[in-house]
Each structure stands twice: as C-alpha cells, then as structure tokens.
Amino acid sequence: MAFKNNCYTRSISTNNCKSEMTIEEFKQWLKQFDHDGDGRISKDELRDALKSVGGWFTTWKSWRGVKSADANGNGFIDDSEMKHLVSFAEKRFGVKIVMY
C-alpha cells in the first residue's frame, strides 16, 4: 500500500497520525480496487478501498466521496475528476496528498 506510515487503526487518519502519499500513489492505490478494469472508481470500489485500511462507515463515506468528486454525474470517478476526490480525501479521510 502507498501510505507512508504505519498508523492504520480504524481510519485513514487517527488523532495526530496522518497518512501521506503523492497524487500518483493515491491513484495507483485506488487502481487496485478498480475491479472491472474500466479505469473509473465506483462507489462500491471506493468502499472496498476504504475497508482495506480499516475505515468505518465505508458505505456512507464512499457515497459521499463519489457524490463530491463526480463532476459529470455519471456515478463514477474518472481520471479527470480525481482532483475532486483528492480534495475530498484530504478533508474527510485525513490523507495528506503531496506533490513530490
């Protein structure tokens, strides 16, 4: 997994412990949950990604994540909408996305 620390209790971040990754690492991490290989992330695929790091309320969080990031309203997050998911993940999942 692409997270740069070992702090994975029940969510991507806990108290003072934030996970950090680059945008490319974040995309690669999500890509492993693209079960149908269509290059897009569905609500169910995002839920599986959140479950993989021990997240709570994954159904609700994945629904909110897709709703927040899905600019064209097709129910999926494609590469052009990834910046919206990155922003959502930083605010709601406690992931720090860095540019190096």
Automatic annotation (TrEMBL):
SMART domains to which the protein is assigned, alphabetical: EFh
Keyword Nucleotide-binding: no
Keywords, alphabetical: Calcium, Repeat
Keyword Methyltransferase part of the UniProt annotation: no
Ranges for domain EF-hand: 21-56
One of the Pfam families matching this protein, by short name: EF-hand_6
GO molecular function list: calcium ion binding
Annotated InterPro entries: Centrin_CML-like (IPR050145), EF-hand-dom_pair (IPR011992), EF_Hand_1_Ca_BS (IPR018247), EF_hand_dom (IPR002048)
Highest taxon above the source species: Eukaryota
Name of the protein in question: EF-hand domain-containing protein
